[in-house]
From TrEMBL, chains A, B:
The lineage of its organism: Bacteria, Bacillati, Actinomycetota, Actinomycetes, Kineosporiales. It comes from the Bacteria. This is LacI family DNA-binding transcriptional regulator. The keyword DNA-binding applies. Keywords: DNA-binding, Transcription, Transcription regulation. One of its GO terms (molecular function) is DNA binding. The keyword Repressor does not apply. It comes from Kineococcus endophyticus. SUPFAM superfamilies: lambda repressor-like DNA-binding domains, Periplasmic binding protein-like I. Residues 11-65 form the HTH lacI-type domain.
Amino acid sequence: MTIHQQPPPRATMREVATAAGVSLKTVSRVVNGEPGVREAVRRKVEAVVEDLGYRHHRGASDLRRGGQRTRAIGVLVQDIANDYSARLLRSLEDATRERGFVLLTASLDEDADRERQLVAEMIARRVDGLVLMAASERQDYLAADVRAGLPVVCVDRVPRGLAVDCVTIDNTGGTRAGTEHLLRHGHRRIAFLGDLPTIPTARERLEGWRQALTAAGLEADPALVRDGLRTVGAARDALLELLRLPDPPTAVFAARNVLTVGCLHALREELPGPQPEVVGFDDVELMDLLEPRTTVVRQDVEAVGRAAAELLERRLAAHGGPVQHVVVPAELVVR
Amino acid sequence: MTIHQQPPPRATMREVATAAGVSLKTVSRVVNGEPGVREAVRRKVEAVVEDLGYRHHRGASDLRRGGQRTRAIGVLVQDIANDYSARLLRSLEDATRERGFVLLTASLDEDADRERQLVAEMIARRVDGLVLMAASERQDYLAADVRAGLPVVCVDRVPRGLAVDCVTIDNTGGTRAGTEHLLRHGHRRIAFLGDLPTIPTARERLEGWRQALTAAGLEADPALVRDGLRTVGAARDALLELLRLPDPPTAVFAARNVLTVGCLHALREELPGPQPEVVGFDDVELMDLLEPRTTVVRQDVEAVGRAAAELLERRLAAHGGPVQHVVVPAELVVR
DNA sequence: TTGAAAGCGGTACCAA
DNA sequence: TTGGTACCGCTTTCAA
């Protein structure tokens, strides 16, 4: 017979108080480092705390203090396993750690339902604020909570239907710069590989490509656009397909790190014509060591995280004030 | 003059009850989807909930339910921005999401003090369990909490001074396999680049290198070992230095992803002699496209996450039972 | 310096 | 089907 011995429940303040022969309130004072306790009493209580393995219960404490301050921030990103999301998370962690914040994190996978569900979960847990890399088209479902004082900062994507602070990369400008780089190299037929067109960021990058071509007096040929690409394999296949066109591109702009990797894989295949030049959005480790050299538009993810943390803390300190939109410039890294 | 208008506090169940003209308990029933409420009343309450923007307060609920179930898991990894940690996190997320768990995440940066501080923080927040990629040498400071029923699973590193479940990679075996691969290629002087020797994982990998050499009847020359390496640059410099030895290595085993990248950078430099063959622990994206082809020991991070989640849930369901140690095999990917 | 009692936002038990 | 009351673990107020 297996007996599942329930471990003894954790000691509470009351138990510490009883064991130390003092009142509950005195224990509270000691645990919170408040003054007004005789040194001898304080020592006695601390000994019992140690002895009973007492651990402060933040939930109960927060509840009683009432002030809606859990010192937790909810962070919803696309995919924690993706380098971009992971680095953003890390930079948020660094920017908030010293003030004692803890991060509740989750991945959305471009799923709007998951976003709403997780946002609700975070709110139920009374996070002090929310950093959101939205998967949904519109975030108006958050309006009531924002009105109720929940600080929200959208990152990477501009909020729609909701007036909150946000931090984005200059997607259009970055893509334009990358495309112009290819134009300067004499390319006239430049393909574009993009993510789901439902993602604002993806649309902005497509727009940058279009702007660069138009400004150069070229037609933005729709036949050279492949979007809705989400994986390395899809990008690879798309590029190979483009190269088999009657009038194939001589260069390609890959609008996301995963897609750039896909292009580089495609270049290893038997190509029907000359090797196209690749420029990608997002730098990827080791790419600087690869032949052919691939120029990239690099985003300063750490700056995005820092800015988001700053905006959040400002709202945390004082609700109100106009909504802010920080645009972090993208840098062209020519290789 | 700036007025910081405090937003109205969130509506409570009591307020919903008053507004709906029912008792507090009835609202609780509706919110929790409990039976025993007339359809008309339920609808009325739901309307008021919507109207007042009521949001359930999990903290208060958990407190009253008492059962120590916050449905939150604390995950402490080395560095969220590192690919390995990020993928582990993601696989833990996937494995626990369906059961409604939320992840509290933080990076330790090999800092034992930070580990203790963050563990305390997690416990104060009453996480249901802890996944720990330890930075500390010994985890005995957790003994009281484990005895009190806190499920802890150590990942990547075997716990010391604490009897808890753990999931590790076969570091020694993986490194041995990688080193044997180099021996088969005829190499006799094989260098080893490793992380801080205080990290058990790093020591195990060094041991694998040693075992392979000894088994081949060779001396494990300490002059060919460089450890304490933490960055790409440090690994690069270390390899270049080794290659300038009077009797330089003809091959090198890099014991971590960052160090392998460093080696690949070194190969781009002006080398004093022939190019050494590199084998690395951890696969890195794009490495398969690089020349020279680099063989790697690949770890199944997702399997580690799944196993950790499984062990955790087992403890969550029923405390007790013998401590388990899952070893995930490492795979040699020959290129 | 110390403690008793009330209450934070909910849930459980039992009575109506 | 509904509601009153006690209470989860802690902090606050105020009195001793």
